Amino acid sequence: MLQYKKSRGETEITDKIEAAFLLAPMAELGHRALRELLEEFGGCDEYFSEMISAAGLLSGGPYEKWYIDNGPCPRKLVYQIVGSDAEQIAKAAATLEKFECAGIDLNMGCCAPLIRKAGGGIAWMASADRAAELVGCVRPETKKRLSVKLRIGFTDDFEYLVKFCRRLESAGVDLITLHPRTAKEKFKRLARWDYVGALQRELSIPVAGNGDVTDAAGLIRRTSGPCDAVMVGRAAVRQPWIFAQARNTLARIEGADPSPVPEIEETGLQFLELLARWQPPDFHVSRARRFFGFFCDNLKWGTYVKNLLNRESGLSGMERVWRQYFSSGKDAE
User: Fold this and answer.
1) Does the active-site annotation cover 110?
2) 3-class SS of residue 250
3) Is the peptide bond before 72 cis (omega within 30 degrees of 0)?
4) Residues 6+ apart with CB under 8 A from 217
5) Which partner for 279 in 76, 136, 283, 316 could form a disulfide, CB atoms 3.0-4.6 Å apart?
6) What is the band of 187 on the pLDDT scale with cuts at 50, 70, 90?
7) What is the distance between the alpha carbons of residues 211 and 63, in angstroms, rounded to a whole number?
8) pLDDT of residue 90
9) Which residues have C-beta within 8 Å of that of residue 284, sequence separation ≥ 6?
């Protein structure tokens, strides 16, 4: 679990953060099946759930129990809430407070048009006053760690970012994760990791960084830089062993055996099995397509396999395609 140093009133926690590895919250990916797969490789320090709609949770939708499933390691799970109404989000936090978890995270960084137009995600960054009011509503509802994931903002204005984050800190936030891009910038624009270190120096609470970590070497490099934790998203889907490889490299003694080469075919089959076990049938195809959209990058003919998988309407068909590809010997050509 990510530990931190924070003073609030008479309470001070002084545990030191050391090489904290976090899984980013990802729509249609941050579910239990992926967490189970990552745990098979040794796991990471904390898993952030995929976005949980405050309104959906409170309305008792038919799929909410799947979103709030805290397995396989409840003590390492952080629930992320998305919404546009402070009162609703506070009530959602109070509901999630009842489950075992490491903390509650508020989404202030999602740039999806529907969420932004509704006043959620990055829309909260338009007003530091409004964002601080949200934190003030949520803070009394949970005794667990309260964090916020955000971007630089709508423009490249570091001064505004610092003022914004200081307001959140004063309102009771314990951790901030910065994805150092602006609202309009896509992944082609390199993440400004220097902003992560600069923001860390401005705040008394921990700052985690997220963005452009593509492999274990990059994860190690970012961990050794000026931040308290590193959050990984797409790379952890592409390489579910990324945290284990980074951890093994950091702990390796000279002359020790290197990390074993992952079995790509077996890992894909294992994910399909976990998906069938831990997600509802209505989610199977969409979640499988999302996963293999990244995981197929490990294959020589990845785009070809993605296309074949996307034509299938069920997990059994996807399993057949996956097995046939490896039995054909194409990946060994």
Assistant:
1) yes
2) helix
3) yes
4) 249
5) 283
6) confident
7) 29
8) 98
9) 275, 276, 314, 315
pLDDT digits (tens, 9 = 90+) for 31-66: 999 999 999 999 999 999 999 999 999 999 889 999
Among the listed residues 44, 101, 110, 227, the single catalytic one is: 110
Nearest to 124 by CA among 170, 167, 78: 167
How does residue 329 score in pLDDT terms, banded at 50, 70 and 90? Answer: confident
DSSP letters spanning 72-83? S-GGGEEEEEE-
Report the DSSP beta bridge partners of residue 177.
149, 208
Residue closest to 247 by CA, chosen among 209, 218, 216: 216
Q: What does the pLDDT read at residue 260?
A: 61
What six digits make up the tokens of 236?
């952890």
Global pTM? Answer: 0.92
pLDDT at residue 293, as a whole number: 98
CB 104 within 8 A of CB 87: no
Round to whole Å and give the CA distance between 135 and 167. 9
Average pLDDT over residues 132-145: 97
CA pair distance 44, 21, nearest whole angstrom: 5
12-251: CATH class: alpha beta
Tell me, what amino acid is at 184?
K
The confidence score (pLDDT) of residue 21 equals: 95
Beta strands 20-23 and 52-53 are unpaired
